[in-house]
Amino acid sequence: MTQRIVLTGANGFVGQAVSRLLLARGDAVTGIVRRPGTVVDGVQAWLLDSDDFGEIETRWPDALRCDTVIHLAARVHVMRDRAIDPLAAYRETNVAGTLRVARAARRAGARRFVFVSSIKAVGESSAGREPISELVPPAPIDPYGISKLEAERALTEFGSRSGLEVTIVRPPLVYGPGVRANFLQLMNAIAKGVPLPLGAVQARRSMVYVDNLADALVHCATDRRAAGTLFHVTDGHDLSVVELARMLGWQLHVPARFISIPPQLLRLAGRVTGRSAQIARLLDELRVDSSHITEVLGWRAPYTVEQGLLETAAWYRATH
């Protein structure tokens, strides 16, 4: 059954993958974006140029009715954040802005709201324990994670009052063609033959290929069993950073090179250079349990890690 779906962040890395999948299903997709000409062909663009979805409740077109909203837009990690109060800035976009979209969506007839949160709403590490499931008490430590958890709780409360079905998805690191930030930096280093000081790092971290995440989000938007649920979504196969680098090197046709430096020395270097958070993301284990979405929806990742990395490397070779 086709649906009318509104997608925030439709022109983004994940948003474009979700758009393509929805269009392939035959759904009518409207993307809320700030710039024209940035959505996938076939998506109806709604240009909303206000910050943090301000005025969305009054500017929502009367003719735009929808069944579901998938909310991807967010204030994500800002390197060298210059905000006077970073937590307040994250809250304005990720909490207040999200609630504005939810209220507007409900008035437009939406019965379901799929909120893309983050595993950082729970924490940064699974060291010393089992992979993080949906039952683990959240303990976010940075403004981004705190704002995502607050948004989850505010949406759940709004849903209970309004009747809006809220479904929350927490992905870990998302990769695929078009990836940016640390993953792209790792690929750049491997492609240039730069020795990586990671030979002694054994910690494993969960990831999710962008098309796997898109598939899970479409299931959450269209399966009645997803109403009112919280899901962690991963590829289902965790790699150490060494395994990841070796697989990327093989796909890039460049052998990954390593130097073995004790993790404690890398942490010390992180403290000295002010990059403790970046170093921790390489050294700390962050394994995520995504079995709940399989149990509830029967969902399984349609692509393996190997397939995801192959597509990512092919994109990199074609564009760099």
UniProtKB/TrEMBL annotation:
InterPro entries referenced in this protein's UniProt entry, alphabetically: Epimerase_deHydtase, Lipid_A_modif_metabolic_enz, NAD(P)-bd_dom_sf
SUPFAM superfamilies annotated for this entry?
Answer: NAD(P)-binding Rossmann-fold domains
Superkingdom to which the source organism belongs: Bacteria
| Residue ranges of every copy of the NAD-dependent epimerase/dehydratase domain listed in the record | 5-226
Q: Which Pfam families match?
A: Epimerase
Q: Identify this protein by name.
A: NAD-dependent epimerase/dehydratase family protein
Q: Could you read off the lineage of the organism from its UniProt record?
A: Bacteria, Pseudomonadati, Pseudomonadota, Betaproteobacteria, Burkholderiales
